[in-house]
Amino acid sequence: MQNNNGKQVEIGKSLHEARVAKGMSIDDIQKITKIQKHYLEAIEQGNFAELPGDFYVRAFIKQFADTVGVNGIELLNEHDDSLPDTQSEEYADEVSKDDVNSRVASRSREHRKDSFRKVIPTIGIIVAILVVVCGIWAVVVHTNSSSQTSISSSSVSVTGSSESSSSSSSKADDKKKEDKKSTDKKTTIKEVSATKYNVTGQKENTVTLKATGRAWSSIMADNKTLFQGSQNSGDKKDVKLPADTKSVNISLGNTQGAKILVNGTELKYDKNTPLTTQITLEFSK
């Protein structure tokens, strides 16, 4: 390698200034160019003797310059006399190595092409076999489909009668569901006055008298007596009201010793309800 320290320092200084102006560090240049850090530092210091050989001086300088925004080719041409001769014996050796590598790579590509050409007939055979298998499968599926259609046609009459019976069964189930819904509705008791209440929610209703102490009571539905008598603490009397009952009168001899429930929902006495009284229940759906 020819030695011209003044020119080499000038090249290194120009690259250093360009790198700093770009706001880049030596580590940044190393990541981009893949050139080892101590070689980059040697270039900036103008110490080209630290580089691995004459062949790499121009290559490393050009990569460095292009990375920091300097035209690498112009920089090399400007300082051509102070840089190692690229036609040195070392350069020739590197070129020879490149030629050998190129020939090896070319032979490798040809080998891959030949291998692929050999495989093509095998691929064609496999594709042909797949086409035949798919054709056989399509025929089998079509045959099975035709058989299923025939079976379905022969069972139409049976299906029709089954649907008829299913329809009747479905209607019966729907009626049961409607009846269940009507009985599942929540009973609502709304106070009108201290002795009068409106009851809604059910078609069929049951009034329950539950004694918590000694009590006398009676129940009349639409002016017809359904129950009357005395109860002791713990006694319970369920009275099922006739269908379409509109009004019920309940006479109580001791409101503090008797509870009234309609379909399991307790009637809450008004605070002004007297000890002995008559409660009127008005029913609506």
Please tell me about this protein's structure.
This protein is α+β, with helices and mostly antiparallel strands. Among the domains are: 5-89, lambda repressor-like DNA-binding domains (434 Repressor (Amino-terminal Domain)); 188-284, Lipoxygenase-1 (Sandwich), CATH 2.60.60. The chain has helices at 5-21, 26-33, 37-44, 54-67, 72-78, 89-154, 156-184; strands at 188-193, 196-200, 206-211, 215-221, 224-231, 236-240, 247-252, 258-262, 265-266, 277-284. The strands form 2 sheets. A 6-stranded mixed β-sheet has the order 1-2-10-7-4-5, with no helix packed on it. A 4-stranded antiparallel β-sheet has the order 6-3-8-9, with no helix packed on it. β1 (188-193) and β2 form a beta hairpin. α4 (54-67) crosses α5 (72-78). It is elongated. The protein starts with a helix and ends with a strand.
Write the layout of secondary structure elements.
Elements: H1 5-21, H2 26-33, H3 37-44, H4 54-67, H5 72-78, H6 89-154, H7 156-184, E1 188-193, E2 196-200, E3 206-211, E4 215-221, E5 224-231, E6 236-240, E7 247-252, E8 258-262, E9 265-266, E10 277-284
Parallel strand pairs: 2-10
Antiparallel strand pairs: 1-2, 3-6, 3-8, 4-5, 4-7, 7-10, 8-9
Helix pairs in contact: 4-5
Radius of gyration: 54 Å
Succession of helices and strands? HHHHHHHEEEEEEEEEE
* Structural category: alpha+beta
Q: In angstroms, what separates the terminal alpha carbons?
A: 114 Å
Poorly predicted runs: 154-162
Neighbour order of strands in the largest sheet: 1-2-10-7-4-5
**What about the largest sheet?**
6 strands, mixed
Summed up, the helix count is 7
Shape: elongated
